[in-house]
Write the structure tokens for this entry.
Amino acid sequence: MEELISGGFDWQTIYDWIIANGLKFLVAIFIIAIGLWIVNKITKAFKHVLVSRQIDETLVPFLVSLTSVTLKVLLFISVIKYVGLDMTSFIALLGAAGLAVGMALSGTLQNFAGGVILLILKPFKVGDYIEAQGHTGIVKEIQIFNTILTTLDNKIVIIPNGGLSTGAMTNYTKEETRRVDIVFGIGYGDDMDKARDIIKEVALKNELIHKDPEVFVGLVELGDSSVNLVTRVWTNTADYWTVYFYMMEFVKKEFDKQGITIPFPQRDVHMHNVK
């Protein structure tokens, strides 16, 4: 090519160059055409695998596009090398640019990686009630960079996926059943066995409370002002708060009816006359 430029339009030289290099360029074009066809087949197959494994719909298009672009770049580099062009400088420049972009977007890339992990591993899904990063709420949306929660008082909380994927997280709705733990305090002068029977009777009247495992009531603490009985009942996760409020209300009413007191903190003050 340099000879063509310096020597003018020498048709014999042009002819010789075409004979020497034309076949290589034709093969390169053929490789590109076949390569793009193969890339298309691979990306379609990859998409089918992702869909069949029920990968989140938010993640599928991105992973397919990323795979397609990566394969096309590799194809382009392979063809350039086949033609005989020097790719050393280009690869070095590409690597330096990638490093600079990576450093500038380190936080964003961390959130992106966290989003990919969350969408693949699925520790929670839309509609779950979770506690993470100091916030509690219902998962409204799982995005690539952030997860959006709706709190019980209808506030929107946006949590970056980087910290969410690496930090501690509690999923309250992952399992179908939950245990409701409540502590009831009675006076030291009250009948503990009678109080235990009242609590069990109230629990067994509610159909939302499971009979297996059995209702458990046991002495958990001898407090400063009360004898504390812990109550443990099992229910469906969706009925947790219904059962909790039911037990609090109706145990109190039954205690009042049957003379069981619920003491409150108090202090005895002794007065001495000093002469």
In short: Residues 11-52 form the longest helix (42 residues). Helices lie at 2-7, 11-52, 60-83, 88-104, 106-121, 161-166, 192-204, 240-257. The chain is about 50% helix and 20% strand. The radius of gyration is 35 Å.
